[in-house]
Amino acid sequence: MYCWRGKVGVVKPTFRPGSLETFTRLLPDGVCVVPRYVGVRAGTEAEFDEAIAVAESRVAELAEFGVDLVVIQGVPPIMLRGYRFDGELTERLTRQYAVPVLTATTAQVEAFRALEVRTMVILSYIQGAMNARFAAFIEQAGFTVTGVEEIQGVSFADVGDIPAEVIYREAKKAFIRHGGECVYLLGAGWDCLPAVEYLEEDLGVPVVTNLNAEVWATQKRLRLREPVEGFGRLLRTLP
Question: Which of 73, 131, 209, 238 has the smallest number of Cβ neighbours within 10 A?
Answer without folding.
Answer: 238
